[in-house]
From TrEMBL:
UniProt cross-references to Pfam families, sorted A to Z: Beta-lactamase
Gene3D superfamilies associated with the record: DD-peptidase/beta-lactamase superfamily (3.40.710.10)
Official protein name in the record: Esterase
Occurrences of domain Beta-lactamase-related (ranges): 17-358
SUPFAM superfamilies, A to Z: beta-lactamase/transpeptidase-like
Amino acid sequence: MNIEGQCDPAFAAVRDAFERSFAAGRELGATVAVYAGDRKVVDLWGGVADRRTGREWRADTPCLTFSCTKAVTATAALLLAERGAYDVDGPVTKWWPEYGVAGKEETTAAHLLSHQAGLPAFDRTVAAEEAADPAARAAELAGQAPLWTPGAAHGYHAMTFGWLAGEIVRRHAGCTVGEFAGREFTGGLELWLGATDEVIGRSARLSAGRRPEGGGAGDVSAYLGSLMHRALDNPAPGRGGFNNPVVLRGGWPASGMVATGRGLAGFYRDLVAGRILRPETLADAIRPRAAGPDRVLLTESSFGLGYMRPASTFHLPRTAAFGHTGAGGAVGLGDVEAGIGLAYIPNLMGNRLAGDTRAYDLVEAVYASLS
C-alpha cells in the first residue's frame, strides 16, 4: 500500500502505525493529520476512496465523519454564549419558550450540550429528507416528553444532539450551524456541514466492515428494540445509507460533517490555540458535566459541553485530551497542554461504539512522538 503525504521525522511512529493498519487489512482508505502548534507535522492518506470504482484516496478527498460533527456544533453554540447571546446554565425557555412542556421546564442549555436533556431519540421514524429541516426537527423534540428528568442522568443523544444544540445557534444567529460555523471559524478549512455536489462528488464512499463475531438473531432482536437503536439509527439515512447525497447535503448537525483529515485537525488546531473560543471558555467547556453510566450506550461515558472526555467510550493515552469520535471509526482530538490538533478519518466502517483501535494506535503514536 502506497501511503502519500508528509510526515515530520519526529512523528515517524504515526506513519508506521498508519502503514501497519493498512498492512493488516484494517483499512480500505483513510487519512490522518496532526498539528503541533501551528506546524503541520503529519498529513497522510492512502488506499481506496471508492471500492466500487477503485478510485484512489487523494490529498483533497473528504469523508463523512459522523459524530465528530458534534464538536463543531458545540463550538458554534459556545461561541454565541461567549458573546453574551444566552447563559449556558440558564433556562432554555428564556429563548425557546415552546420547549418548556412535558417536564422540560427546568432544562438548561448545558443539559442540551452534555447529553442530559432526556431526549436521546425521536418518538417516530424520521426520514432523511425531513432531517434537512432543523427548525421542524427542533420543534418536534420540543414537543416530546423526556425519558428522564433533565439533568438527573445522561445518555448519548447520538442524532438529537444536533437539533437540540443546533437550535441554540438557529435561535441566536438566525442560521444553521453549518452556515454560522462557515462564516465564523471553519470557512478556511476543508470541512463542510452541508456539502455541495462538488464536494460530494470527490468524497470517499463508506464501506461496511466485517460483522462482529458472536452476534446471533436474539442479539439483533434485542438491539432493534432498544433505546440504543432508537437513538443511533433514527433518522434513517435512506437508500445508499450514509453515502446518500441527501444526507451529505443535509448538514445534520450531530453527524453530517464531511471533512479532510487536515480540515478537521485544523479545526482543533485553531480551537486549542484560542482562535475560536477564549481559553477560559474552552476550559469550562471541557470540564466534565456528565460522567458515569450512560443510559443509551450502557457503558461509562463522559461529556463536557459537547466534547467527549476520556472514558470507556473515548479511550485515550492521556486525560488532558478532548474531542469526539465518529461511528465509522473517525476521531477528532485537541489537547491544550500538548498543543496538538489531530484527526483520523477512514471509510471502512468500524464496529466499536467505544472508539476504534485504529484511531487509538495513531493517537498513542502521536503522544509517543511528543515525549
